[in-house]
């Protein structure tokens, strides 16, 4: 837990804020006119227990990543010793790892894709055969049982693994990756175990017929691959390969994870540029040219590798037509008339509304699950139940609706005749008896008369409900494909309806409207902007269609935001993650550091006794301690507490809890030969323990060593970023965001430490918007979630 | 001029650095081991006059833009008064301006394109007619004279305007826009006069047959359009329309200029995504999601508008096939075999080498011009001479080389028979008798046997030399098209040669190799990375070909960087612009703020006498003054000088020269009714004067007002960013770069002002690389350039 969140309830308790404001005023002449009366704030000052599923709480449990380079003595020593050749070598290693990330992510994607392909082929083949067979034999319950058996059996495996082995592998993983890239340390997100569960989980979801996609999980998988490859060791397997040790730092690891996520997008959609933009849009606070270039390299390599393998697998080696797992197929003639842009905007409005409905209902469902479906076995049962319902609904539609279309250019692999005449097939069965992304392709490319609008509308409603129900189950499943499918269905319906009104319109192509509908629905749900546009452009392979897609997405996003937040954001808030936005909340300039910061702060002297250090580390849970040189109060208390504006001593540096633990663990306070070796190891000693540090309880220190002293100066960061107590919230926010800080020390006029700002202190201020109104909101911080 | 560059020669004079280092050591125990001996530095400590054309000098004349929001009293007052409705209105206005930027840039692009089209059509039509006519009449000198007359006449207009009216309109404008986006205030870059000269200039360059393109100037034009539209006034025309006054700040203007540059790229290449990436790669230090989205909006709108107008102009309204000014044409089947990637890399190597040759020779030529071609009339004459040579060389090639190809699918508008048989045409005349971008298209798409490799090679060499000669003339001309044409020529030659070796290769398409050659050459010259790849992908309209393009560009860049810097960078260094790189120079952590900063600093007390203020502003040229509250030395001297580590008083804020001038100009020190009105105007008073502030000589203050005092606190920035004297160079650099600072105040342990860091202090440290070696270099700063 970070500095100053020791007792979060005190921080938000009634009156504490105004109390601080009054104190500040006395030191700051220019600003006392602006007390906290304006702009209007929605304050959550209640101290009662936080309700489950509340969106305005931050959990105290999430810690920040530390992107700051600690330029201490060891760092300078290493830099002097290694020189430019090491700098070059490190750069070469970086490129090599990005190459590996691209290749490995592609291979993983291929494994997922082919396994699903094979399983689905078997499953739908059997079902089709049984339907064809039983129609004459009157045993239609048999294909139902087969379908049920397949679905429930396969989903059981996946949901069991997710529920009992690694719950963090549930869902799409995009919100979690987004949080990680934003700078929040998401526990267990990047472990190998998570990857294994995710891969098996997503195969079981799609092959098991749930309304979930493999694209989100693919992005998560890419991120894990990147994190694993770059560290040259596996903490889970307790195996250290020794190479790439110099990348064992948060900021290096984050760069690789950005590349992995981008490669994941590239593999999922065949969109290397979209992948780069995804990583940037979701993650990077600081645009770095060479990093972006490397990320682009990884995603290009990934698309290329995937393309080569999949082309060979599908029997066209060298043709390179399989850019990604999700293939929108080839659009022949995607032209549009000027007035159609208005239609597309209108469809954007529908997408925004439907997306908000999706988000809101799923949110309510998630809260219900958080309250009542807590036991793991219940979660597994729910997943199996949904799988069974999916099969039931699908078969019911096939059995009851007679939507017959002539055979010919078969849009499906398993055409089912049902009650249709010879040379006809049941078009609703065609939609159900294939994986959802094949259905998306069908809706995009089927010839104009392939579908009946009312059946399609019914299909859309049912699939919409199923996909809402599916997300949040204890399975690995993304929302891209189900959302696209829903949108493509109603988009195509609109296209068909327009065809009824203007039967002679040459510009009309229901497939085009299906594409716009899919984009609108997706935009209304996820609310991504430029990256989503580029992903869709790349997935359609058509650059001309950029502007229509963009306008649709933009309308969908704006309309959606009028009603509620984006889907991923809602789930992030449900998890109470302290995510930092891109910009500080508007009109927050009259909030000052002294109001925002946490205090009192526990400080350490430059030379400290081992016993004292152990005492502080045992009693406090803070992650960073300012080091000061003028200790005014040499009492026996473990921590030195100062009230606001009182001197905490002149700031000398900042030392992290993890550094202190390693110092104690390796007895760096003893001047022995062995210690000397450790000191020669320098930063590598600290890297060795990254990212899982010992706890204070794991460290045994003999009684006689308790009186030793230790000089913190070689280890501490000698010039941490600071801000003055009069700095405004936007100013601190920009500093924090642009530099990826974890701790920002607040000093007074004479450079004495008076407080500390961490991520949660800033994430606590958020703008609320509701039907056109807006204001500043203060979130609660709770350590209960 | 900024704080601390008062006497630049002192700063770089021999020994001053080590002197400072010694002083620092006494206050910093941990770092005294690392004195300046390591890593190796190449120090330019000479005091002699700087040689013309030197690459390791920074001019003291360029000032920084100021992206920091000055959160003073007036700011808070405005924020409180205007509230959320104003915030929303401002956002709507932003979107509206980005829409306008897109539309207007497109219209400008269309005007340029159509004018060039018409002029070229007339010119080449006449020449073709005369050649056809004179071949029988034996008057071949007539078409030569016609060609000469056209070229020299048209170029004369453009070069006269550039030389005598607005020299900043010369060249492509990309280096200057890059500097502006980096944060350097380039004088006169964004004025309407510059735009007019640029537009006429680029038309005259291309229509006049010089080896220059219209793409670079298009980007510059977009930037000017954006700057003009966003400010709601024209300082040149002395007209204030009153709207958009709230965008009259450096950081707002920069955002719009990013959008304009992106729209320019979109118009030039039909590459909206490439445009966004260009703006980001060249400009943004801080990735901002909503800004990026707006930039994308502007570039999409721009492509769309341009497409609509050009499609109608070319007689296919509604077909929307003209994405940009430069159209690569439709590539049918851009597939490639795996082993071809190696070939592409090899071509990248050639591109890197040729690009370096291009850059180096042009650099030498530019230095020659800086020394000897100084008179404006000489510049005009040189441009006309090159125009004449271009015509001569072209006609000589047509007259002497008989490269006949059968007529049929005419790749050119004006096929010339010359000495060819009937039903044949002269293929070299086809290359010369059209605008260069049409030649690029010919080389990409002509059927395999259209060109003879040796003629093509000769053409390439001649065009290469012409294009080197052309850039740097006093005309507006970009390098994209000539570079692409050179590359396409040798690329096609390679394609043809491979065809000789493997006559049966089905994968072989000379057009594909022309494309790769063009990319390699361009990559070797400009060394852009992701944005160039995406621009080329969008211009070819083929996403599959992303990886080959990327690998070619990457190889070309790496090989090129082994030899010399990129073309734009060389020209930026020649202009001695203090450009900040993306990252701090490697291994510079042992340089500390106390070594980097400028000192002594001129500080102001919080309450200052008018006479003193006038005195300081008259005698000092600094742009920012720290405001302190404890003045230890109340002498009559205009400035308070402190030696290193001695207290300059407790830091209270930072006030800019421009603010002080406006305070004096508007007599804000007098408490009259009129002043009260001014104070009500608040920030608008300051915005009114943006960006051209009065000088101290323009301000008359009566003798009786000289004894008035003024309280600076309502106007100053109360919490400027600071760093401690022990902060390392990379730490300061990141702070500076990420936040777009202009002044960074350096304080000591007790928060007393001891120095100031500006852009030039950081830009002064640069890595030199030469054939595999690297080290840290300190540039000279000179006020002579």
Automatic annotation (TrEMBL), chains A, B:
Residues 1-45 are annotated as: Disordered. The chain crosses the membrane at residues 95-116, 144-165, 195-213, 256-279, 291-313, 341-360, 380-401, 454-472, 479-502, 514-537. GO terms for cellular component: lysosomal membrane. Its main location: membrane. It holds the Pfam family Voltage_CLC. GO terms for molecular function: chloride channel activity. It comes from the Eukaryota. PROSITE patterns: CBS. It is found in: Membrane. It is a multi-pass membrane protein. Residues 716-778 form the CBS domain. Gene3D superfamilies: CBS-domain, Clc chloride channel. Belongs to the chloride channel (TC 2.A.49) family. This is Chloride channel protein. It comes from Nezara viridula.
């Amino acid at each position: 837990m970070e500095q100053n969140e020791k007792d979060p309830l005190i921080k938000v308790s009634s009156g504490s804020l105004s109390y601080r404001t009054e104190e500040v005023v006395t030191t700051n002449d220019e600003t006392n006119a602006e007390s906290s009366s304006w702009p209007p704030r929605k304050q959550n000052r209640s101290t009662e227990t936080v309700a489950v599923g509340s969106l305005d709480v931050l959990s105290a449990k999430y810690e920040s990543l530390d992107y700051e380079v600690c330029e201490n003595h060891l760092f300078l020593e290493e830099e002097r010793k290694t020189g430019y050749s090491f700098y070059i070598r490190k750069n070469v290693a970086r490129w090599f790892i990005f190459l590996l990330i691209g290749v490995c992510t592609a291979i993983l994607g291929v494994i997922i894709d082919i396994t699903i392909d094979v399983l689905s082929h078997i499953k739908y083949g059997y079902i089709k055969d049984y339907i064809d067979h039983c129609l004459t034999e009157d045993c239609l319950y048999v294909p139902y049982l087969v379908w049920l058996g397949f679905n429930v059996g396969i989903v059981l495996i996946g949901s069991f693994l997710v529920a009992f082995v690694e719950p963090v592998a549930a869902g799409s993983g995009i919100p979690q990756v987004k949080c990680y890239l934003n700078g929040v340390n998401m526990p267990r997100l990047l472990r190998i175990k998570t990857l294994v569960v995710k891969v098996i989980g997503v195969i079981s979801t799609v092959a098991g017929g749930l309304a979930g996609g493999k694209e989100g999980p693919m992005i998560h998988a890419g991120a894990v691959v990147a994190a694993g490859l770059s560290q040259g060791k596996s903490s889970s397997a307790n195996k250290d390969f020794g190479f790439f040790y110099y990348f064992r730092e948060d900021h290096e690891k984050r760069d690789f994870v950005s590349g992995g996520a981008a490669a994941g997008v590239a593999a999922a959609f065949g969109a290397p540029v979209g992948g780069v933009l995804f990583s940037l849009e979701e993650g990077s606070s600081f645009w770095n040219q060479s990093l972006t270039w490397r990320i682009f390299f990884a995603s290009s390599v990934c698309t290329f590798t995937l393309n080569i393998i999949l082309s060979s697998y599908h029997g066209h080696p060298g043709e390179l037509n399989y850019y990604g797992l999700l293939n929108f197929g080839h659009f022949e003639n995607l032209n549009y008339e000027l007035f159609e842009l208005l239609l597309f905007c209108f469809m954007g409005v529908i997408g925004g509304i439907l997306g908000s409905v999706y988000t809101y209902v799923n949110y309510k469902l998630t809260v219900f699950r958080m309250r009542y479906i807590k036991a793991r076995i219940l979660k597994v049962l729910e997943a199996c139940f949904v799988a069974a319902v999916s099969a039931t609904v699908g078969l019911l539609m096939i059995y009851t609706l007679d939507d017959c279309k002539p055979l010919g250019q078969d849009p499906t692999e398993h055409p089912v005749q049902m009650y249709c005449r010879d040379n006809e097939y049941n078009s609703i069965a065609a939609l159900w008896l294939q994986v959802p992304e094949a259905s998306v392709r069908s809706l995009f490319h089927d010839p104009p008369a392939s579908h009946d609008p009312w059946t399609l509308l019914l299909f859309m409603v049912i699939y919409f409900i199923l996909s809402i129900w599916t997300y949040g189950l204890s399975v690995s499943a993304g929302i891209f494909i189900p959302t696209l499918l829903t949108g493509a269905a109603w988009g195509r319906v609109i296209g068909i309806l327009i065809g009824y009104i203007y039967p002679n319109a040459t510009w009309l192509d229901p497939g085009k409207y299906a594409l716009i509908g899919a984009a609108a629905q997706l935009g209304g749900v996820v609310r991504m902007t430029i990256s989503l546009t580029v992903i869709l452009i790349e997935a359609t392979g058509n650059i001309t269609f950029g502007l229509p897609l963009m306008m649709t997405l933009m309308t969908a996003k704006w309309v959606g935001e009028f009603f509620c937040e984006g889907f991923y954001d809602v789930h992030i808030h449900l998890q109470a993650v302290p995510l930092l936005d891109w910009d500080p909340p508007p009109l927050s300039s009259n909030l000052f550091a002294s109001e925002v910061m946490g205090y009192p702060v526990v400080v350490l002297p430059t030379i400290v006794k081992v016993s004292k250090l152990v005492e502080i580390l045992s009693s406090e849970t803070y992650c960073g301690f300012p080091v000061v040189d003028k200790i005014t109060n040499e009492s026996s208390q473990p921590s030195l507490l100062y009230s606001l504006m009182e001197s905490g001593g002149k700031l000398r540096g900042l030392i992290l809890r993890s550094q202190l633990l390693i110092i104690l663990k390796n007895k760096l306070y003893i001047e022995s030969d062995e210690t000397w070796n450790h000191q020669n190891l320098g930063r590598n000693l600290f890297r060795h323990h990254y990212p899982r540090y010992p706890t204070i309880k794991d460290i045994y220190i003999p009684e006689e060593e308790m009186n030793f002293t230790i000089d913190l100066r070689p280890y501490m960061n000698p010039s941490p970023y600071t801000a003055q107590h009069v700095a405004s919230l936007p100013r601190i926010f920009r500093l924090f965001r642009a530099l990826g800080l974890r701790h920002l020390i607040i000093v007074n006029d004479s450079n004495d430490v008076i407080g500390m700002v961490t991520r949660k202190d800033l994430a606590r201020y958020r703008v609320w918007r509701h039907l056109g109104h807006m204001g500043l909101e203060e979130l609660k911080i709770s350590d209960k979630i």
